[in-house]
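Annotated sample (chain length 505).
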Amino acid sequence: MHAEGLAHEIVHEIHRGAIHEAQGHAVHQHGCAIPFEGRVVIGAVGIQLELVLESGTAAAIHGNAECAVLGRNLKNAFCGGRSYGKGGFGHARDFGFGGAFVKNGRGVVSMSHLQPYACHSTRSRGRLVPEPPAPPRSDFARDRDRIIHSAAFRRLKHKTQVFVYHEGDHYRTRLTHSIEVAQIARAISRALGLDEDLTEALALAHDLGHTPFGHAGERELDALMAEHGGFDHNAQALRIVTRLERRYAAFDGLNLTWETLEGLVKHNGPLTDAEGHALGPYREKGLPPAIIEYAEVHDLGLSQHASAEAQSAAISDDIAYNAHDIDDGLRAGLFKIIDLGDIPLVGEALGQVLKAYPDLEQGRVVHETVRRVISAMVNDVLATSRKNLKRLAPKSPDDIRAAGETLVTFSAQMKENNRILQQFLSHSMYRHERVMDIMAQRVIRDLFNAYMNDEKLLPKDWREDAPISDQSRYARQVCDFLAGMTDRFALDQHKRLFDLDPLFR
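Output written by the structure step:
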């Protein structure tokens, strides 16, 4: 091979064998690999090998290049050429082993099962602040790791999903919910041939912008910020990963890839039409200032759909909270298991469980029912998405973005089932007095007014960034501080400032 900018795909049969390492270079695989008459044989599934070469870099393959060798007849194919393309490097993926790569001083050979419409880290649009690659991780894996290690992600442990933390140890929090979303999203992504690392990053990050006390806290903070641009948890998530996290020497935020940022902002669909008019939940109030400001320096294509990976994360969020809120609602006693009998899909799954296991204890009945509901939803998404992808035959991630419709989605029947379930949960759970507790509103309101009236109540580093003389800027600073609080910290601050514990008044 002597072409520059060459991407060469090699598909090989799979058998069993032994790990091969050459000259100290990592050839890592959760399985076994041996050379066999020019074929790489690994584990029990087919793997696609992709050699990624940088345009403008000499890609000639020659025998004296230092490299790891997986089989004598593939030696030359694995040598030479740098892998560092725009925004990333070659990465490995298979259907169950984890990943593998072969790297030398000048390049990386990657293994991938990704479909043409998947986002490839090797073709990423990059980061706002350019950074060199960090093998063995792909750029999307690096995004995921930065999200996991962020302070905002850790704080999700004590942020309300539905129930405030003090109500019990077994209810889901924003953190456990995000982990469950990521688990479902990875399964969907893998089945559709998408990039799991990008999908996981988006699933883990999607709730970073939520306030303490769940949606009750968000509604109250939005009302308090009405004169200063309001509050939106998606916009807040963008502020966190581009500005508020301060960990790295070279930049504020996490400096995530373009693909992760666009998915974070647009996972529920385009934010504007082609003329720039706000859509969906932003139609009346307009886009949040945080999104407008960031889009001015880093265009996220707000009028287009997001990637298939982002769509997978979004539908997984729906699946997770629908199914798991059933579990939490029953655990809290907000409704009874018999109430689920007439709910489409849920009632069917419950009937199957009771028929198969008539003497099963209720806790196991609930879990088995929820498990079957999740499986049914995931299978429906996969079947529907495959039909959509076959119909449109997208050849690139940009074809997904320009499709004009969400491709990773439920069928019409499952959408209706989901609507009925949502209606039931809204009536029986989300609007229940235990969930709609005025405590959350009171805490947020009292703290906001206290900080707005006395800047000395804010920590020193927060005061320095926004002087109280600039009311809108200062209000946004107070909003950022409040939104980042955990339920526990907000309650502690309220008690400290007002000598009053709202939980017991």
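Annotation: DSSP finds 18 helices and six strands in the chain.
Annotation: The two ends are 76 Å apart (CA to CA).
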